[in-house]
């Protein structure tokens, strides 16, 4: 059974088609990257997978569960980290994680240990009782990772997890993701527009452009299609005629919102 | 580095819907108390306005005797109205918090938890009630210090807190509903300010209904704040009140508010 299975998925915002006839299969235990420029449809795709946007019945399944018919069951399988740095700055790190432990019905007897365990796993145990307002951007992102992991999801969905972070914080976030995956065998679905990150950290990649998947495979397989020394950027250019830095969204509202949030959280 | 367990125990997800609902409401109320524990300044700043109403408006109009309240001192008549006003002001801007949570990505994360939309809205609504109760306690202490003849009956005082919670839950849902319609903080601020004072002045908080012009009496009858004030006044001061009707209207309005706000919540998530 696939971790994620999408068949003929389509979604429009008014007249703008964000996702167009998308077929996708993510195998259990793999780190799967959706790679594409802003506006390619990556976020819309994962918002449908995570039940945030409506999907037609039968079109999307998470571990065999239909996201349209069994939303609550799907949400129990998923840990989600959105693009924005989204911790509650007025709460401590521990309270932020405990909130999600309660919302996922982690039993009271196991809750404190589970919260401590995931905070330890992301390297925040020592600062867990400080307010999140005092955390750096990288620490906030790791805190969000802990929030997503506290329910021990079978599928971890990360939307641009390193956006707005400096290179050291980005490396730290990927290190934690890799470690959790190695320790637990969790499936990870991640969106990014950083080629190097996708190449280094993903088992397989789908290149998205204007709502469609233009290529899919391991980084090595994708590069081999174009040439011996080709990069993923070359693959993308060869497939679409565009490049990964173009913005097809007619705006960078989400990126701006993320930067505002990063500044707000210090 | 230690790692979290590899898979969630199956028993974590077996709660039935009513228990799930109660659990989510309790969680949201707990978070609200945690936030208040970290920053109590809002309780102090929000106490200034009701203190001014009671001290300046209440004391002055008690001496002027221009508002006929029978044998009841005007300050005693006014105190429950100001209590309801404080709770209204706390809850009516809760939609701004929802919009902030949407902008910050917090709402998306909450919506991807196994929480029905209605439970999430009810959680927020009762969290507003928790904050309003703390505010109400401040107003009650102020009123007692000013010599208002408040009841000392613990059952009545507990019912007062219940009325404040349910009333605040309704106004919080109204705010979330408006947030779901207008979608931006700026518009919500404008509409919130535009409706707050009319809600207050078109209620029995400041003066008896009999003094109102006919058209205002009609508005008063469909204004949930009036039922909240009537219940609070009856419970705290002992004036004649239709408590069962007041509670029924407030509970019904809150339930309707939860339903409508929950239906509009997905608009905020898109």
From TrEMBL, chain A:
Matches recorded under InterPro entries:
AAA+_ATPase, ABC_transporter-like_ATP-bd, ABC_transporter-like_CS, ABC_transporter_ATP-binding, P-loop_NTPase
**Residue ranges that the Swiss-Prot or TrEMBL entry lists as coiled coil:** none
Give one GO term, molecular function aspect. ATP binding
UniProt keyword terms in alphabetical order: Antibiotic resistance, ATP-binding, Nucleotide-binding, Transport
Q: Which Pfam families match?
A: ABC_tran
**Family according to the record:** Belongs to the ABC transporter superfamily.
The protein here is known as ABC-2 type transport system ATP-binding protein
User: Which organism encodes this protein?
Assistant: Kutzneria viridogrisea
TrEMBL record, chain B:
Q: Give the subcellular location.
A: Cell membrane; Membrane
Assigned keywords, A-Z: Antibiotic resistance, Cell membrane, Membrane, Transmembrane, Transmembrane helix, Transport
Q: Which InterPro entries match?
A: ABC2_TM, ABC2_TM_bact-type, ABC_2_transport, T7SS_ABC-Transporter
Q: Does the keyword Kinase apply?
A: no
Main subcellular localisation: membrane
Membrane topology listed for this record: Multi-pass membrane protein
Boundaries of each ABC transmembrane type-2 domain copy? 41-268
Specify the superkingdom.
Bacteria
Transmembrane ranges, per UniProt, are 82-100, 132-152, 158-183, 195-216, 247-265
- Family stated for the protein in its record: Belongs to the ABC-2 integral membrane protein family.
- Name the chain's protein: Transport permease protein
């Amino acid at each position: 059974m696939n971790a994620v299975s999408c068949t003929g998925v389509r979604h429009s915002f008014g007249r703008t088609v964000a996702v167009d006839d998308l077929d996708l299969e993510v195998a259990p235990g793999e780190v799967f990257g959706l790679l594409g420029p802003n506006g390619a449809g990556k976020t819309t795709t994962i918002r449908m997978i995570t039940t945030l946007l409506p999907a037609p019945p039968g079109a999307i399944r998470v571990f065999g569960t239909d996201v349209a018919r069994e939303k609550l069951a799907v949400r129990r399988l998923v840990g989600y980290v959105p693009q924005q740095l989204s911790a509650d700055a007025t709460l401590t790190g521990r309270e932020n994680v405990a909130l999600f432990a309660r919302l996922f019905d982690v039993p009271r007897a196991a809750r404190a240990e589970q919260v401590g365990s995931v905070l330890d796993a992301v390297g925040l145990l020592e600062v867990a009782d400080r307010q999140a307002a005092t955390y750096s951007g990288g620490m906030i992102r790791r805190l969000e990772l802990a929030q997503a992991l506290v329910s021990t999801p079978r599928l971890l969905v990360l939307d641009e997890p390193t956006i707005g972070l400096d290179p050291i914080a980005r490396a730290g976030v990927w290190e934690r993701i890799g470690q959790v995956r190695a320790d637990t065998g969790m499936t990870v679905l991640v969106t990014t527009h950083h080629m190097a990150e996708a190449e280094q950290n993903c088992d397989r990649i789908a290149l998205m452009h204007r709502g469609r998947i233009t290529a899919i495979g391991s980084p090595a397989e994708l590069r081999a299609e174009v040439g011996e020394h080709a990069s993923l950027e070359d693959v993308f250019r060869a497939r679409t005629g565009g490049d990964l830095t173009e913005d097809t969204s007619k705006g960078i509202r989400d990126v701006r919102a993320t930067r505002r949030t990063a500044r707000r959280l210090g | 580095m230690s790692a979290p367990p590899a898979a969630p125990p199956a028993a974590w997800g077996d709660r039935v819907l009513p228990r799930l609902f109660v659990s989510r409401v309790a969680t949201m109320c707990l978070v609200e108390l945690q936030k208040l524990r970290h920053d109590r300044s809002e309780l102090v700043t929000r106490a200034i306005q009701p203190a001014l109403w009671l001290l300046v408006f209440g004391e002055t109009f008690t001496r002027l005797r221009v508002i006929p309240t029978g044998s009841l001192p005007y300050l005693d008549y006014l105190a429950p109205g100001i209590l309801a006003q404080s709770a209204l002001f706390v809850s009516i801007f809760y939609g701004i918090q929802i919009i902030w949570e949407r902008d910050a990505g917090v709402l998306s994360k909450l919506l991807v938890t196994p929480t029905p939309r209605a439970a999430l809205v009810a959680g927020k609504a009762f969290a507003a009630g928790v904050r309003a109760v703390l505010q109400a306690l401040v107003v009650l202490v102020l009123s007692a210090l000013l010599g208002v003849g408040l009841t000392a009956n613990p059952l009545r005082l507990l019912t007062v807190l219940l009325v404040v919670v349910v009333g605040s839950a309704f106004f919080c849902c109204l705010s979330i509903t408006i947030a779901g319609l207008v979608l931006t903080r700026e518009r919500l601020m404008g509409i919130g300010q535009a409706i707050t004072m009319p809600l207050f002045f078109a209620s029995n908080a400041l003066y008896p209904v009999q003094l109102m012009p006919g058209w205002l009496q009609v508005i008063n009858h469909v204004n949930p704040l009036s039922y909240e004030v009537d219940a609070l006044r009856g419970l705290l001061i002992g004036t004649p009140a239709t408590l069962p009707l007041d509670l029924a209207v407030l509970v019904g309005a809150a339930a309707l508010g939860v339903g409508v706000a929950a239906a509009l919540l997905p608009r905020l998530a898109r």
